[in-house]
Design a protein that fits this description.
Blueprint: E1 2-13, E2 16-28, E3 33-38, H1 44-52, E4 59-64, E5 72-75, H2 87-92, H3 101-114, H4 130-142, E6 148-152, H5 160-177, E7 180-184, H6 188-194, E8 197-202, E9 205-211, H7 223-237, H8 240-246
Parallel strand pairs: 3-7, 3-8, 5-6, 6-7
Antiparallel strand pairs: 1-2, 1-4, 8-9
Protein backbone atom coordinates (compact mmCIF):
# COMPACT_ATOMS: atom_id res chain seq x y z
CA UNK A 1 0.00 0.00 0.00
CA UNK A 2 2.85 2.35 0.89
CA UNK A 3 6.62 1.93 0.70
CA UNK A 4 9.27 4.10 2.34
CA UNK A 5 12.85 3.90 1.05
CA UNK A 6 15.86 5.65 2.58
CA UNK A 7 13.74 8.34 4.22
CA UNK A 8 15.66 11.07 6.05
CA UNK A 9 14.79 14.47 7.49
CA UNK A 10 17.37 17.08 8.53
CA UNK A 11 16.71 20.45 10.16
CA UNK A 12 18.96 23.47 10.49
CA UNK A 13 19.14 24.69 14.10
CA UNK A 14 21.39 27.74 14.31
CA UNK A 15 24.51 26.50 12.50
CA UNK A 16 23.93 22.82 13.26
CA UNK A 17 22.42 20.15 11.04
CA UNK A 18 20.01 18.12 13.21
CA UNK A 19 19.09 14.67 11.92
CA UNK A 20 15.50 13.90 12.94
CA UNK A 21 15.17 10.82 10.71
CA UNK A 22 17.90 8.75 9.08
CA UNK A 23 17.63 6.21 6.25
CA UNK A 24 14.28 4.68 7.24
CA UNK A 25 12.84 1.80 5.20
CA UNK A 26 9.28 0.63 5.81
CA UNK A 27 6.52 -1.11 3.89
CA UNK A 28 2.88 -0.91 4.97
CA UNK A 29 0.62 -3.67 3.75
CA UNK A 30 -2.99 -2.74 2.96
CA UNK A 31 -5.15 -2.90 6.08
CA UNK A 32 -2.20 -3.37 8.45
CA UNK A 33 -1.91 -1.77 11.90
CA UNK A 34 1.61 -0.54 12.74
CA UNK A 35 2.48 1.00 16.11
CA UNK A 36 5.71 2.99 16.44
CA UNK A 37 7.34 3.23 19.88
CA UNK A 38 10.53 4.81 21.17
CA UNK A 39 12.04 7.46 23.40
CA UNK A 40 11.02 11.11 23.10
CA UNK A 41 12.87 12.72 20.22
CA UNK A 42 13.57 9.42 18.44
CA UNK A 43 11.81 10.46 15.21
CA UNK A 44 8.35 8.91 15.66
CA UNK A 45 6.34 12.08 15.07
CA UNK A 46 8.67 13.21 12.29
CA UNK A 47 8.00 9.93 10.46
CA UNK A 48 4.26 10.46 10.86
CA UNK A 49 4.43 14.04 9.55
CA UNK A 50 6.38 12.85 6.51
CA UNK A 51 3.85 10.11 5.80
CA UNK A 52 1.07 12.70 6.09
CA UNK A 53 2.79 15.01 3.62
CA UNK A 54 2.96 17.82 6.20
CA UNK A 55 6.71 18.17 5.69
CA UNK A 56 9.00 17.16 2.83
CA UNK A 57 11.83 14.63 3.29
CA UNK A 58 15.45 15.69 2.93
CA UNK A 59 16.23 12.46 1.10
CA UNK A 60 14.38 9.27 0.26
CA UNK A 61 11.05 8.35 -1.26
CA UNK A 62 7.51 7.59 -0.17
CA UNK A 63 5.90 5.43 -2.85
CA UNK A 64 2.28 4.40 -3.17
CA UNK A 65 1.20 1.09 -4.63
CA UNK A 66 -0.87 2.48 -7.51
CA UNK A 67 1.17 5.63 -8.01
CA UNK A 68 -1.54 7.80 -6.48
CA UNK A 69 -1.46 9.41 -3.05
CA UNK A 70 -3.99 7.72 -0.75
CA UNK A 71 -6.65 9.59 1.18
CA UNK A 72 -5.03 10.34 4.53
CA UNK A 73 -6.70 11.02 7.87
CA UNK A 74 -4.69 12.41 10.80
CA UNK A 75 -5.47 12.34 14.52
CA UNK A 76 -3.26 14.31 16.91
CA UNK A 77 -2.67 14.22 20.66
CA UNK A 78 -4.69 17.43 21.06
CA UNK A 79 -8.07 17.24 19.30
CA UNK A 80 -7.71 20.92 18.22
CA UNK A 81 -11.43 21.45 17.90
CA UNK A 82 -12.84 24.76 16.72
CA UNK A 83 -14.85 26.16 19.64
CA UNK A 84 -17.40 27.95 17.44
CA UNK A 85 -18.41 24.72 15.67
CA UNK A 86 -20.60 21.95 17.02
CA UNK A 87 -19.44 18.33 17.24
CA UNK A 88 -20.99 17.68 13.82
CA UNK A 89 -19.43 20.86 12.41
CA UNK A 90 -15.97 19.91 13.67
CA UNK A 91 -16.31 16.35 12.38
CA UNK A 92 -17.31 17.46 8.90
CA UNK A 93 -15.04 20.48 8.57
CA UNK A 94 -12.48 18.75 6.36
CA UNK A 95 -15.14 17.97 3.75
CA UNK A 96 -16.53 21.50 3.37
CA UNK A 97 -16.18 22.66 -0.23
CA UNK A 98 -15.06 19.21 -1.38
CA UNK A 99 -18.31 17.21 -1.45
CA UNK A 100 -22.00 18.06 -1.44
CA UNK A 101 -23.70 19.04 1.82
CA UNK A 102 -25.86 15.91 1.76
CA UNK A 103 -22.73 13.76 1.46
CA UNK A 104 -21.11 15.62 4.36
CA UNK A 105 -24.18 15.04 6.51
CA UNK A 106 -24.23 11.33 5.65
CA UNK A 107 -20.53 10.82 6.37
CA UNK A 108 -20.66 12.80 9.62
CA UNK A 109 -23.64 10.78 10.84
CA UNK A 110 -21.81 7.52 10.09
CA UNK A 111 -18.57 8.67 11.76
CA UNK A 112 -20.32 9.96 14.88
CA UNK A 113 -22.17 6.66 15.16
CA UNK A 114 -18.87 4.78 14.98
CA UNK A 115 -17.34 6.82 17.82
CA UNK A 116 -20.53 6.88 19.93
CA UNK A 117 -21.33 10.58 19.67
CA UNK A 118 -24.61 10.60 17.75
CA UNK A 119 -26.47 12.08 20.74
CA UNK A 120 -23.87 14.86 21.07
CA UNK A 121 -23.78 16.05 17.45
CA UNK A 122 -25.12 19.49 18.46
CA UNK A 123 -22.85 19.95 21.49
CA UNK A 124 -19.88 22.34 21.48
CA UNK A 125 -16.28 21.59 22.47
CA UNK A 126 -16.54 23.31 25.87
CA UNK A 127 -19.36 20.90 26.74
CA UNK A 128 -17.28 17.78 26.09
CA UNK A 129 -15.06 15.63 28.28
CA UNK A 130 -11.49 14.90 27.19
CA UNK A 131 -12.49 11.47 25.92
CA UNK A 132 -15.40 12.88 23.93
CA UNK A 133 -13.17 15.53 22.37
CA UNK A 134 -10.75 12.77 21.33
CA UNK A 135 -13.65 10.92 19.73
CA UNK A 136 -14.51 14.03 17.71
CA UNK A 137 -10.90 14.19 16.50
CA UNK A 138 -11.13 10.57 15.41
CA UNK A 139 -14.50 11.17 13.70
CA UNK A 140 -13.00 14.12 11.81
CA UNK A 141 -10.41 11.77 10.33
CA UNK A 142 -12.91 8.99 9.62
CA UNK A 143 -15.28 11.20 7.59
CA UNK A 144 -12.52 11.44 5.00
CA UNK A 145 -12.85 7.67 4.52
CA UNK A 146 -9.06 7.39 4.68
CA UNK A 147 -6.98 4.68 3.09
CA UNK A 148 -4.19 5.65 5.51
CA UNK A 149 -5.00 6.65 9.10
CA UNK A 150 -2.17 8.32 11.04
CA UNK A 151 -2.47 8.79 14.81
CA UNK A 152 0.10 10.66 16.93
CA UNK A 153 -0.41 9.72 20.59
CA UNK A 154 -4.13 10.48 20.37
CA UNK A 155 -4.98 9.06 23.82
CA UNK A 156 -1.89 10.15 25.77
CA UNK A 157 -3.61 12.91 27.76
CA UNK A 158 -6.53 10.72 28.89
CA UNK A 159 -7.03 8.74 32.07
CA UNK A 160 -6.37 5.01 31.92
CA UNK A 161 -10.05 3.99 31.95
CA UNK A 162 -11.01 6.35 29.11
CA UNK A 163 -7.90 5.42 27.14
CA UNK A 164 -8.71 1.69 27.37
CA UNK A 165 -12.23 2.31 26.10
CA UNK A 166 -10.98 4.33 23.13
CA UNK A 167 -8.39 1.68 22.31
CA UNK A 168 -11.20 -0.88 22.08
CA UNK A 169 -13.31 1.47 19.94
CA UNK A 170 -10.39 2.15 17.59
CA UNK A 171 -9.80 -1.61 17.20
CA UNK A 172 -13.47 -2.13 16.34
CA UNK A 173 -13.39 0.70 13.79
CA UNK A 174 -10.23 -0.67 12.21
CA UNK A 175 -11.71 -4.17 11.98
CA UNK A 176 -14.84 -2.75 10.36
CA UNK A 177 -13.17 -0.42 7.84
CA UNK A 178 -9.61 -1.80 7.50
CA UNK A 179 -7.68 1.39 6.77
CA UNK A 180 -3.91 1.08 6.91
CA UNK A 181 -2.97 2.51 10.32
CA UNK A 182 0.25 4.00 11.70
CA UNK A 183 -0.08 4.80 15.40
CA UNK A 184 2.61 6.55 17.48
CA UNK A 185 2.73 6.01 21.25
CA UNK A 186 5.01 5.96 24.29
CA UNK A 187 2.79 3.33 25.91
CA UNK A 188 4.10 -0.17 25.21
CA UNK A 189 0.98 -1.84 26.61
CA UNK A 190 -1.10 0.24 24.19
CA UNK A 191 1.22 -0.83 21.37
CA UNK A 192 0.77 -4.56 21.94
CA UNK A 193 -2.97 -4.21 22.49
CA UNK A 194 -3.42 -2.54 19.11
CA UNK A 195 -0.70 -3.55 16.67
CA UNK A 196 -0.03 -6.19 14.07
CA UNK A 197 3.57 -5.00 14.19
CA UNK A 198 5.47 -2.88 16.72
CA UNK A 199 8.29 -0.81 15.22
CA UNK A 200 11.00 0.40 17.62
CA UNK A 201 12.79 3.65 16.77
CA UNK A 202 15.86 5.25 18.30
CA UNK A 203 18.12 8.03 17.05
CA UNK A 204 15.93 8.63 14.01
CA UNK A 205 16.25 5.01 12.84
CA UNK A 206 14.14 1.88 12.92
CA UNK A 207 16.22 -0.48 15.05
CA UNK A 208 13.72 -3.25 15.78
CA UNK A 209 10.44 -4.78 14.66
CA UNK A 210 8.27 -7.25 16.50
CA UNK A 211 5.14 -8.88 15.07
CA UNK A 212 2.15 -9.24 17.38
CA UNK A 213 0.57 -12.56 16.29
CA UNK A 214 -2.28 -12.42 18.79
CA UNK A 215 -5.97 -12.65 17.96
CA UNK A 216 -8.32 -9.78 18.76
CA UNK A 217 -9.88 -8.72 21.05
CA UNK A 218 -6.85 -8.69 23.34
CA UNK A 219 -6.60 -8.78 27.11
CA UNK A 220 -3.80 -6.79 28.76
CA UNK A 221 -3.44 -9.56 31.37
CA UNK A 222 -2.95 -12.33 28.79
CA UNK A 223 0.43 -13.97 29.45
CA UNK A 224 1.51 -13.90 25.80
CA UNK A 225 0.80 -10.17 25.64
CA UNK A 226 2.59 -9.54 28.95
CA UNK A 227 5.65 -11.45 27.69
CA UNK A 228 5.74 -9.47 24.45
CA UNK A 229 5.32 -6.20 26.32
CA UNK A 230 8.26 -7.09 28.57
CA UNK A 231 10.43 -7.95 25.56
CA UNK A 232 9.69 -4.59 23.92
CA UNK A 233 10.42 -2.75 27.18
CA UNK A 234 13.76 -4.59 27.35
CA UNK A 235 14.49 -3.38 23.81
CA UNK A 236 13.62 0.20 24.73
CA UNK A 237 15.73 0.08 27.90
CA UNK A 238 18.80 -1.25 26.08
CA UNK A 239 21.74 0.50 24.49
CA UNK A 240 20.70 1.71 20.98
CA UNK A 241 23.96 0.36 19.52
CA UNK A 242 23.22 -3.06 21.01
CA UNK A 243 19.66 -2.92 19.65
CA UNK A 244 21.05 -2.29 16.19
CA UNK A 245 23.29 -5.35 16.64
CA UNK A 246 20.33 -7.47 17.71
CA UNK A 247 18.50 -6.42 14.52
CA UNK A 248 21.43 -5.91 12.09
CA UNK A 249 19.39 -5.57 8.91
CA UNK A 250 16.37 -3.70 10.26
CA UNK A 251 17.45 -0.34 8.82
CA UNK A 252 18.06 -1.77 5.36
CA UNK A 253 15.28 -4.26 4.80
CA UNK A 254 11.65 -3.61 3.98
CA UNK A 255 9.26 -5.57 6.18
CA UNK A 256 6.10 -6.90 4.54
CA UNK A 257 3.54 -6.86 7.33
CA UNK A 258 0.97 -9.55 7.89
CA UNK A 259 -2.44 -8.45 9.08
CA UNK A 260 -3.66 -10.43 12.07
CA UNK A 261 -7.46 -10.65 12.36
Amino acid sequence: MLEVRGLSKHYKVSDRDVVALADVDLMLAPGSFTVVVGRSGCGKSTLLRLLAGLVAPTTGDIRHADGHRPTIGCVFQEPRLMPWLSVAGNAGFGLVGKVAKAEIASRVAAALALVGLTDFRDAYPDQLSGGMASRVGLARALVLEPDLLLLDEPFAALDAFTRRGLQAELTDIWLARRPTVVFVTHDVEEAVLLADQVVHMDGGRIIGRRPVPLARPRDATDQALVTLRRAILDDLAGDPSQAATRHPSSDQRVFQQETVP
